[in-house]
Amino acid sequence: MAGFFAKLKEGLTKTRNNIVNGIDGVFSRHDRIDDDFYEELEEILIMGDVGYYATENILERLKLEVKENNIKEPAECKSHLIQVIKDQMAVTDEDYDFLNEPSIVMVIGVNGVGKTTTIGKLAAIYRNRGKKVLIAAADTFRAAATEQLEEWAQRAGVDIIKAGEGADPSSVVFDAVNAARARNIDVLLCDTAGRLHNKKNLMNELEKMNRIIDRNYPDIKRENLIVLDGTTGQNALVQAREFAQAAPLSGIVLTKMDGTAKGGIAVAIQSELNIPVKFIGVGEKIDDLQEFDSDAFVNALFDINMPEE
Question: Among 15, 32, 33, 76, which has the minimal tally of Cβ within 10 Å of its Cβ?
Answer without folding.
Answer: 32
